[in-house]
Amino acid sequence: MLNQLCLCAQIKSLNELRYTPAGLPVLTMWLTHESWQMELQQRFLAKMEIQAKALGDLAAHWPYQPGSMVEITGFLSQKGIYHSRPVLHIQQIREYKG
Amino acid sequence: MLNQLCLCAQIKSLNELRYTPAGLPVLTMWLTHESWQMELQQRFLAKMEIQAKALGDLAAHWPYQPGSMVEITGFLSQKGIYHSRPVLHIQQIREYKG
């Protein structure tokens, strides 16, 4: 079932790289987004902060610094059993060059 | 700048139709989503509840009842100045037939 977010965003902050008990590298971060979207033929300023998560090699060899603009494709899932806020699980990422 | 979510979800609850001061119909709702996604070649159970919003004719002539499965395309924006949680602004919706 469909669950795909394509988002151009700025990396606001990166947390320390951590490892799961199974040894998987995990990097979490906050992204900020601001864009003009169309809603009922009017321009609407969409603004958002969202947490994102990279796993594995992408997390271990993370090439983007805070302030970088990136284009991400991924899926949303709640942060945890007791945290229903959605987190973006990064599947593809590249630098945004405008 | 890119901000597009494609989501298949179930309508959990619908709020009462309301109108903005300018007379625009607004319908807000909660959606639930559950799907298997691929993450590092493993299956991951993505689960989420997210608020969504329809405006205008779509809100005024809303055809879906709680329990309906729908496929939505839209963009994310924070709920308000003091509520940073993302809300899905519905641009396209259709019944999900599996």
Automatic annotation (TrEMBL), chains A, B:
Taxonomic classification: Bacteria, Pseudomonadati, Pseudomonadota, Betaproteobacteria, Neisseriales
Protein name in UniProt: Primosomal replication protein N
Coiled coil: none
GO BP: DNA replication
GO cellular component: a single term: replisome
Listed NCBIfam families: PriB_gamma
InterPro entries: NA-bd_OB-fold, Prisomal_replication_PriB
Pfam families: SSB_1
Molecular-function annotations in GO: single-stranded DNA binding
